[in-house]
Amino acid sequence: MTQYTTPRTVNVTEFMQRTLVYLKPYRIMAAANMLLAMLTISFYFMYPQITQYIIDAVIAKRQESMIIPAAVALTGAFLLHAVSNALRIAVNTRFGQKVILDMRRDVYDHLLSLPTGFFDRHASGDLMTRIIDDVASVQRILTDGVERALTTFMSILAVLVILLFKSYSLTALALLPLAVLTAGALWYTFSAHPGYRSQRREIGKLNALIMDSLQGIRQIKAYGREEFESIRFSGQAERLRQSTIKVMDIWAVYTPSMTFAGSLGTVLVLWAGTPMVMHGQLSLGELVGFLFYLGLFYEPVGRIDGLNQMVQSARASSERLFTILDLDTERKESTGNTPFPEKVLGDVRYESVSFGYKEGVPVLKNISLHAAPGEKIALAGSTGAGKTSMVNLLLAFYRPVSGKIFIDSRDISSVPIHSLRKQISLVSQEPFLFNGTIRDNLLYGQLEASLEKMLAAADAANCSAFIEALPEGYETLVGERGVMLSSGEKQRISIARALLKDAPVIILDEATASVDNATEQLIQEALDRLMKNRTSFVIAHRLNTISNADRILVLHHGEIVEEGTHTELLNKQGRYTRFWMIRNEQERVATQVWPNETMDKEAF
Ligand code: TTP
Ligand code: MG
């Protein structure tokens, strides 16, 4: 079950400090963006001035011939406005996309380097929402937002100067509603932020739900749970709808009231300006020009609301991003910087290792063992005994609560994590293939391997025959998680992948899924080749894998309760003997029901 980590509050200062660094590398682009934005606005500023000229100098003075140059000038101003605006959009998009790329990469890289335990607690869909949506929301404020903020304030300032130049008294009147606008903006800032925060959370949850159900689509169909899933989806989508409505309701009250307050400025100017025109203190053109400019004043003032909305949404998103970015990476967990030497023997030692995924729930208790280089150790024990957990610690997916693990006498917690994992090949319980070709998957651990090496590994893992029989051979696409292949095929590809990695230590978590005897034989051969001359930990379910091991450890409730060779353990007549007898019976029944390799496979 995944949980939702409540993001901590990010104040505006922290938000600015941590996000503005993303603009730094693109200073020139940002400056060009600003410049174009200002040009765009200033070309637009010519409009009221030319209008005023037409009214006062052309209409009032009846100079009809002057309308043509005035119209040409106006067209020119509009055209220049359009051209610089087009350039502004182009620069802004490029600049914004660069910032978004940098941010996404940072968040993704950080995510990849987080300890495995983090992913046990977080839904993939929610993490995806952070990388896609939340990054976009923060980027929007950085590029569009900063541009908008600067141009808005600059144009407000410029218009203010023009207005004051035209009439002090009218300007003073026109500015009266600003007090209301400031109060409104403050109210919005405080009331919208929590709303945006919960909206972001609901989006994350919805994405998590979709991802989960798409991955389990076969189970949904097989259990006929479409309606159940549909109801579950509707429930979450409904919660998202409600939280969106909450923020939009606040918005709905905020913007129109702000526009209304701004319009009062126009009313005040008309109320005071009309008598002034009548008494000859102001020309008609001047009043109209003033009103136009007033429009240009309140239009950017209104834009501040939109800006504020962007900020609140981005702050909520940044909280979700910073929560992740502030977590310690796995690398920080290892204390040393010296990697393993080129040649590692594969001598593995566990010294009194205890571990649990949750505090107070021990999964492994005081485990000690020594595996000499090249030794093959089988881990046996009932389900949930802690076998997978034991090998998870060797790969440093998790760190022991107490005790130490050594490879070639070096404490693995003092080895850089990449160097440690280079020494270990993992064939996991559920083989995982990436959505790509068979070749991509084979080369996953050893990208630079030659074609010969790859073919040899495929051969040794007994998969070359089935791969070559596919119409597209090694270029066959395996589908998401390798769904286009059978589990026996997937398993052999994952063995070939491990063979290619050529690490001195092998971890083999044998799949519990049963395959037919012929395939089992093929897999067994592949495994034997993989484990040859390597220290191997085999979590074994098949009897012949267990009995072939140099030593068997029997785990029970997180403790090693028996240890020895197959014969030694059988003579003990203890837990292993019971386990052996039960498995033997299971395998006997299985071979009665299913064909064994001596039967003609074609008959089925
Ligand atoms: P495992 O170590 O997975 O037990 P196992 O590998 O012996 O069992 P199986 O044969 O079925 O593969 O689990 C031991 C306990 O730890 C069990 O109670 C489940 C728990 N656990 C977690 O909480 N998180 C994990 O990531 C894993 C692997 C196990
Ligand atoms: Mg297991």
Please characterize this protein's 3D structure:
The structure is a single chain. This protein has 604 residues and is α/β, with parallel strands linked by helices. It has 21 helices and ten strands. It has a domain of 319 residues: ABC transporter transmembrane region fold (Up-down Bundle). α7 packs antiparallel against α9. The longest helix has 53 residues. The C terminus is likely disordered. Bound molecules: thymidine-5'-triphosphate and magnesium ion. Thymidine-5'-triphosphate binds next to α12.
Any descriptors?
604 residues, alpha/beta, ABC transporter transmembrane region fold, six-stranded mixed sheet, four-stranded antiparallel sheet, 21 helices, 63% helix, elongated, binds thymidine-5'-triphosphate, binds magnesium ion
CATH evolutionary superfamily of the domain at 12-330: ABC transporter type 1, transmembrane domain
Strand-pairing-aware structural class: alpha/beta
- The CATH architecture of the domain at 12-330 comes to Up-down Bundle
Fraction in beta strands: 5-15%
The strand count comes to 10
How would a crystallographer describe the biggest sheet? 6 strands, mixed
Mean pLDDT score, rounded? 86
Bound molecules: thymidine-5'-triphosphate, magnesium ion
3D shape: elongated
